[in-house]
UniProtKB/TrEMBL annotation:
Identification of the protein by name: Fanconi-associated nuclease
Region (Disordered): 29-55
Keywords: Coiled coil, DNA damage, DNA repair, Endonuclease, Exonuclease, Hydrolase, Magnesium, Manganese, Metal-binding, Nuclease, Nucleus, Zinc, Zinc-finger
GO molecular function, one term: 5'-3' exonuclease activity
The organism of origin for this protein: Anisodus acutangulus
GO biological process assignments: interstrand cross-link repair
Pfam families noted in UniProt: FAN1_HTH, FAN1_TPR, HIRAN, VRR_NUC
Reactions that this protein is recorded to catalyse: Hydrolytically removes 5'-nucleotides successively from the 3'-hydroxy termini of 3'-hydroxy-terminated oligonucleotides
Residue stretches in coiled coil: none
Keyword Oxidoreductase among record annotations: no
Required co-factors: Mg(2+); Mn(2+)
Principal location listed in the UniProt entry: nucleus
Location(s), subcellular: Nucleus
Taxonomic classification: Eukaryota, Viridiplantae, Streptophyta, Embryophyta, Tracheophyta
Length: 989
């Protein structure tokens, strides 16, 4: 992959449908920045046209493009440059957890826990929810938050490639899911992650959302409820009162039959002690004459107190329905009561005290549920929460029309909001109305009508509204069979082409033929034929799609997160750290800054798409546009802004995005051997960005490219100037020093640089021989270990050091264990209250972690903590932080890979001074030093619980140290570490 491609993909995130693509690419750019791209010797087309000439066009099996003429030479080029057709990579939510779609899993939302019990799809399987998140076959999540079941946890282990579950059966209204070999496990006795919170606090404004995670414990352990103003008050039952009167809800109605309800209808409670998910479950039945019908369940939090009253004290509860919700599966408010308290004993008996405790807690739980009713659709709530938060903080970035659209959406009915959320999470853009079906949406006509009036959706119901671009998108709704039938129904002249075309063609080729017939006017009635096959279709409107994408981007501030981040938290899969969001400045001061940033992201997306399509012309055009914008950019002087927002918020500027496009363009041009063009771009970056942490890489590439074109003097001069640049660091300095020593020999330079002696320091080398499995060049080195099993060079080195190499214990970790130790030890510093570095509750690190301002702003906190580490308190700090934050997501911390015992042994044997030096280095420049550390960390203890550590970089027979690795080794030697390079070679025959 080209340098900078992966970073650009993360920046773009989910690709948008770019409606302004042509206008973006046609914008003015200065001439002379780049020369025209080289033409390939064989003609390649990325479209569906046949080109010119009489030779037949054939499909390249590697890149997917159409090629005229000899295919073999084109294949050689594709294979040589690693070009291949892009495949879709499954995400966590696209994994198929079962082989047969027979698992029915329920999402359960109790009265006041707001917790997901599990992903659910009515009459579906557990993998349906997974694919719903990011695929075209499903929405955000398919949940119905109504049941009395206890929250279940999901534990995913990846020790097998295929994850399967057995069939689950619905038992008495509650799902029972069994696991196969422990791969997928739902357990109501344990939580997903230690201390994982089911919800995110701090974002909600209404009292309905301000529920702490220990609220159930508070209800369980103390007789408290909420008063009208939201404060706590005691609920002391009157001992002389022989009546228990409770207001509660019927939940889990999806497991009962569809029964028409009326206000005032009588209900009764019945224990369901055989329920496999909740032994305290209580069913709600109708009090019909004859046989009673099941309506649903009492909320789990109330049932745990009412069940002993029914079982042990033989109380009988009945009541009536107080109101009827619109949704047939929504929670139903009811009032229940019992009046047989005096039948079990006197008030001074032990039985009465026990009874009174259950009674008091039941009253408390019922009072709490009055102010915290169940939330019926979690994904709807998440979307509304996102929009409200964005409007609250970034209202100045939206036009009045956009604010009106968002406010109109917030005022829509539940059905309309849920339908929009479902469609927004799917690929689309068009969907057949006849095939849209969600259990939680009651009236589709009213839902579509409300969305249409709010201009949130566009309907395709007549051929008058159909344009050629819409025609192509609507054709994607049809399957291959329908497209074939459509082609066969065209006129005779086109049918001959269809017969020649054959059945074994891809869907996009069918669509191209249909569009070709329409554009050539062979079939002017094609739109009506398409409409006859698809029926009414719906899509999110262009204006709504743009506004909601903008809101999502402003909320998460990156392209990697979307609404599925809420789901990960709700399921307990991810737990974000606790910190305070303090705002003093805006990221985007005005709307023009935001629009420029969005336009730059669109150019980056076109660049990424063009690379996928091997469209060199468009790639060059994107580079020209980016260079044009960067040429007019003036970087703010940071010399007087130490620790200011300028340093770490520059990544939200258009110029920063364009610089990433240019960097990727440099790699592309170097790959095409267009070094002069790459030199022009690198010089532009170095001139325009004087305070950028990427200057080291830019300087190095400029020096290398100048050498490629034969400008050795200028190449040496660039390298020498780079060594004086304060923004050139870590591995880049080592690489530039090496170039200066190599290029600066007489007669070009007569004086030896002062750093030559320190740079040429010898690093201790150890040689280990192993029996190789393969000796092929370009293939990963594999050896036979001492037990005869196959292993890599790192495992072979660990065996050597564990035996004859000195009885060392250790791990193959590279940078992982160091970043984990740094994150755990520096937790309070990383998540300290610093203004503007935490903008959302979905961050795993402050925005300034990879900038100089991280250390500058927190210098006092960092140095105070490093002083404790240096004086031997590292192990104590590690234990305290581990116990407080284990399982919480943090940048660089891997809780699963390294155990607490391993980390304790490591920090003890490393010693305080050396460990403090590494932590200081990472705090001062996390970005430059967060990679390239030695492969092995080894330690061994002495009798007095004192130990020593060793760091080892392992290299195979054909490997050599990178500049970043050499920089780390030299730094560690300066800190006093015991450092070695272990070179593994083949055993001589």
């Amino acid at each position: 992959m080209l340098k900078g491609r992966e970073s650009l993909i993360r920046l773009i995130g989910r690709r948008r449908r770019l409606r302004r693509r042509h206008s973006l690419l046609n914008s003015s750019a200065p001439q002379g920045l780049l020369i025209a791209p080289k033409e390939d010797k064989d003609e390649v087309t990325t479209g569906n046209g046949n080109g010119n000439g009489g030779e037949e066009m054939v499909d390249c099996p590697v890149c997917g493009n159409k090629v005229r003429g000899e295919i073999n030479s084109h294949l050689d080029k594709c294979l040589a440059r690693g070009t291949k057709r892009k495949l879709s990579q499954c995400t966590l939510f696209q994994l198929k957890f079962c082989t047969r779609p027979k698992v029915t899993v329920s999402s359960v939302e109790s009265d006041f826990t707001r917790t997901y019990v599990g992903p659910s799809a009515i009459d579906g399987n557990i993998c349906d929810l997974a694919s719903d998140i990011s695929s075209s076959d499903g929405p955000l999540n398919n949940v119905q938050d109504e049941s009395n079941s206890s929250p279940v946890s999901l534990t995913l282990t990846t020790n097998r490639s295929n994850i399967c579950t057995r069939e689950s059966s619905v038992c008495n209204g509650v799902n029972r899911i069994e696991n196969l070999d422990g791969l997928v496990k739902f357990d109501d006795e344990c939580k997903l992650l230690s201390g994982a919170k089911p919800t995110i606090s701090g974002l909600e404004d209404s009292p309905q959302h301000q529920i702490s995670d220990n609220r159930i414990d508070n209800i369980t352990n103390s007789p408290l409820s909420l008063s009208e103003n939201g404060t706590s008050k005691c609920v002391e039952p009157l001992e002389d009162d022989d009546t228990i009167l409770l207001d509660t809800f019927i939940v889990g109605r999806k497991f009962g039959g569809v029964i028409e309800l009326t206000i005032g209808a009588m209900v009764m409670l019945s224990r369901d002690s055989q329920n496999v998910k909740d032994t305290n479950a209580i069913k709600v039945l109708t009090e019909d004459t004859g046989h009673s019908k099941e309506l649903g369940f009492i909320p789990r939090e109330l049932a745990q107190y009412l069940s002993p009253l029914i079982d042990k004290f033989q109380l009988r509860f009945e009541g009536h329905i107080t109101s009827i919700p619109q949704h047939p599966r929504a929670v139903v408010p009811i009032q229940i009561y019992s009046s047989s308290i005096a039948s079990f004993g006197k008030k001074d008996s032990y039985g009465f005290q026990e009874f009174n405790s259950f009674r008091r807690n039941a009253l408390c739980a019922a009072e709490f549920s009055k102010t915290h009713p169940p939330i019926p659709a979690k994904y709807q709530h998440n979307l509304l929460l996102l929009l409200k938060e964005v409007l609250k903080i970034n209202a100045h970035l939206f036009t009045e029309g956009e604010k009106t659209l968002l406010k109109s959406f917030l005022s829509l009915s539940d059905d309309s909001q849920r339908l929009f959320a479902r469609l927004y999470a799917r690929k689309g853009p068009w969907f057949r109305m006849a095939r849209i079906s969600y259990a939680e949406i009651c009236d589709y006509e009213e839902a579509v009508k409300g969305l249409s009036e709010a201009e949130c959706v566009t309907l395709f119901e007549s051929i008058d509204k159909l344009q050629i671009d819409d025609l192509k998108e609507v054709l994607n709704v049809l399957n291959v069979g329908e497209l074939w039938d459509l082609l066969c129904s065209l006129n005779k002249s086109h049918k001959k082409i269809v017969q020649k075309f054959g059945h074994g063609t891809r869907k996009q080729d069918y669509i191209a033929r249909v569009l070709g017939a329409y554009e050539s006017r062979l079939c002017p009635n094609l739109p009506s034929m398409i409409l006859g096959k698809t029926g009414s279709c719906i899509r999110i409107s262009a204006s709504a799609e743009s506004v909601f994408w903008r809101a999502e981007r402003l909320f998460f501030l990156n392209g990697e997160q979307d609404l599925s981040a809420f789901l990960l938290v709700d399921l307990g899969i991810v737990k974000y750290p606790a910190y305070n969001c303090i705002f003093t400045d805006q990221i985007f001061p005005d709307r023009s800054d935001l629009l420029s940033y969005e336009e730059a992201i669109e150019v980056a997306q076109v660049m990424d798409e063009s690379l996928d399509e091997n469209n060199n012309e468009l790639v060059s055009r994107c580079i020209e546009i980016s260079a044009s914008h960067v040429s007019s950019f003036v970087e703010e002087d940071r010399s007087s802004h130490s620790g200011s927002m300028v340093a770490f918020l520059s990544c939200f500027s258009a110029s920063w995005v364009y610089s990433k496009v240019i960097l990727l363009g440099v790699s592309f041009l170097e790959h095409e051997r267009r070094y002069k063009d790459a030199i022009d771009l690198l010089k532009l970056l170095l001139v325009k960005f004087k305070y950028d942490r990427r200057r080291g890489y830019w300087t190095l590439r400029l020096s290398v490219d100048l050498e490629h074109v034969g400008c050795l003097d200028e190449s040496l001069e660039v390298a020498e100037k780079g060594l004086l640049d304060p923004w050139v660091r870590a591995g880049s300095i080592v690489a530039l020093k090496r170039r200066v020593l190599r290029l600066g020999k007489p007669p070009r330079r007569w004086k030896t640089p002062s750093f030559s002696n320190s740079f040429n320091r010898k690093i201790v080398e150890v040689h280990v021989q192993g029996r190789p499995v393969n000796c092929k060049t370009g293939v990963k080195n594999v050896f036979y270990g001492e037990d005869g099993e196959r292993c890599g060079v790192e495992e072979l080195a660990l065996e050597y050091y564990a035996g004859g190499g000195g009885c060392w214990q250790g791990v193959h970790t590279e940078s992982g264990i160091w970043l984990t130790i740094f994150g755990i030890l520096m937790w309070d510093v990383v998540f300290a209250d610093v203004p503007n570095v935490f903008r959302t509750k979905f961050q795993t690190a402050p925005l300034d972690l990879e900038t100089d301002s991280f250390y500058e702003v927190r210098r006092g906190l960092v140095e105070a903590l490093l002083d404790k580490i240096e004086h031997g308190m590292a192990e104590e700090l590690l234990i305290m932080s581990w116990e407080s934050h284990a399982g919480t997501a943090c940048r660089g911390v891997n809780w699963d890979k390294h155990s607490l015992s391993e980390l304790r042994a490591a920090v003890t044997c490393i010693g305080g001074p050396c460990l403090a030096s590494i932590c200081r280095n990472l705090a001062q420049d996390y970005r430059s030093w967060s990679s390239g550390m030695p492969d092995l960390l080894l330690w061994r203890f002495h009798d007095d619980y004192r130990g020593e550590a060793k760091l080892v970089e392992v290299k195979g027979p054909r490997d050599r140290l990178s500049e970043q690795q050499r920089a780390w080794l030299l730094f560690l030697m300066d800190c006093g570490f015991n450092v070695e390079v272990c070179k593994v070679s083949h055993t001589p025959i």
